[in-house]
Amino acid sequence: MPPKLGIIAGGGDLPLRLVEACRSAGREVFVLGLEGHADPEGGKLPVDRWSRLGAAGAMLDALREAGVRDIVLAGRVRRPSLAELKPDWRAARLFARIGARALGDDGLLRAVTSELEGEGFRVVATQDVFRDLLTPAGNLGAFAPDAQAEVDIARGVEVIRALGHLDVGQAVIVQQGIVLGVEAIEGTDALIDRCGSLRREGPGGVLVKMSKPGQDTRFDLPTVGAVTVERCAAAGLRGIAVEAGKSIMLDRETMAGAADARGLFIVGLEVPQ
Questions:
Q1: pTM (2 decimals)?
Q2: What Å distances lie between residue 118 and 44, 64, 73, 112, CA to CA?
Q3: Per the database record, which ranges form the LpxI C-terminal domain (predicted)?
């Protein structure tokens, strides 16, 4: 039997999906919900303990007391300012040690992972817990990108690769070769909403999501779900392209049905390394 899994839960559906997968497999879980980030999903997410993000000492103690050995970081976390964070002495010590690495999401997550492993925990990947979440290659649903969409996708891949080396964003929206917006701290949903007001006449744009070059695949993989489809349709986009094997696709059948109903394509990209 696998050891008890500690889920440090941010926002969105992913933490709940992991809990359900573990329950189906008979694996024990301990859910540590991050205050202001984790969404209880109308009471469905079984949070065992709540903690603020800056209370590193209390979080580590709670995980140990629960008998957790493996940890997965799951869900959206909005980066707070240092004033909002109110770090305890353990968190303050971590920030002092990592310095400039805290400026980028990937650098910060690597440092947090290193700290957890230094405390005796093992940080595992979401896909190691629930492999069916990974995006498959090829078209999902009834529609496929046309020639113009393929050009926009290629442009999006190029932009994400360039920005990824600077640890900035995992998503871009391209319409007819024009970059309408890139993801920064606001997240993908806000990016889609913002670009809805920037769209040009003619065929709609494409949302492209990829992992950053050299990204540690244990955390922060690009994630899409049915809500992504709804937002893209509302913003006048005509398709979604996500990296196959290195991104998470929630509720695949629901996504495909929603995309078909709205005339959008969804494609899993096989991106050469």
A1: 0.80
A2: 32, 13, 16, 10
A3: 136-267
